[in-house]
Write a structure and sequence with these properties.
The protein is 27% helix and 25% strand. Strands 1, 4, 5, 6, 7 and 8 form a six-stranded antiparallel sheet that branches. It has a four-stranded mixed sheet with strand order 11-10-9-12. Strands 2-3 form a two-stranded antiparallel ribbon.
Length: 271
């Protein structure tokens, strides 16, 4: 959607707001909670002190005043410790998202969201969350990762922990041959046939490589690593690896059906 400020349905006091912008000192995070014992209420409202609130609504929904767009979806800005920040930078903790124009250890807590009426947001001092388009895109991807990630069955997710740990521990090690292998991958996807709800499922791992000029390892090395690692994984009852176990290919080698029929595994930092 366009964001031209001359369009008549833009809200003049909100027209500069963008997804990822925030405001400090605007009150606490409000949430519903179980009433105290003996209370006649069926719901009580709690409030938690936070640093500020960050807009996670799409930009077009923030700046327009038509179509029933009376609220902005917000999440809290909180302070985290250095260990948690390191985990975020290593691709873990998908429920936190960093901003460009806040302190490094101040992040968006995507686990909690609340709606704020635009009449109130209009009175706030807007702080631009990002100075670059790349930063805004990364934030949008963090929202997609948190709220749009496919929910793999727990038993399958647990069984693939060996692969997850191997990728997480080696990916950022520049001198590690295994790290070079996983840095050569753009995505890891899982394909279940006939589907994830079937009583018996055949699983194929789809490993999508970067283009040739971005590879840090050979196709043979990548294939050997995947074969060795997947051979160690024991899938739960009702699951089995397909005869090939995995497909190793570039995006250009795959069909649209390969992509749409499979689900993206949570290795956000591979891209």
């Amino acid at each position: 959607m366009g964001e031209d400020s001359t369009e008549p349905d833009l809200d003049d006091k909100l027209k500069d707001w963008r997804q990822g912008d925030f405001s400090l000192g605007v009150g606490g995070f409000i949430f519903g909670q179980v009433p105290d014992e003996g209370s006649d209420e069926i719901l009580e409202v709690g409030e938690e002190d936070i640093l500020g609130l960050i807009a996670i609504s799409q930009t077009c929904d923030i700046v327009r005043r038509t179509g029933g767009r009376h609220f902005v979806t917000m999440c809290p800005l909180i302070s985290i410790d250095d260990e948690t920040l390191k985990a975020i930078n290593n691709g873990r903790r998908p429920y936190f998202a960093a901003l460009e124009n806040s302190k490094p250890n101040h992040v968006a807590d995507l686990r909690r969201i609340m709606s704020v009426n635009k009449d109130l947001v209009r009175t706030w001092n807007r702080i631009e969350g990002f100075s670059t388009d790349a930063g805004r895109v990364k934030f949008a991807k963090a929202l997609e990762r948190k709220f749009g990630q496919f929910a793999f069955p727990d038993e399958f997710d647990d069984s693939m922990s060996l692969l997850k740990e191997r990728v997480w521990k080696r990916h950022e090690k520049s001198d590690s041959p295994v790290g070079k292998i996983y840095r050569s991958l753009h995505q890891i996807r899982y394909l279940a046939e006939p589907n994830w709800t079937a009583s018996e499922k055949s699983i194929t791992v789809i490993a999508i490589m970067h283009d040739e000029d971005k590879l840090e390892a050979t196709r043979n090395d990548i294939s050997s690593e995947l074969q060795e690692t997947l051979n160690k994984i024991r899938l739960p009852d009702g699951y089995e690896f397909s005869e090939t176990r995995f497909i190793l290919a570039t995006a250009a080698d795959l069909t649209g059906e390969d992509i749409f029929a499979s689900q993206l595994a949570d290795f956000e930092f591979l891209c």
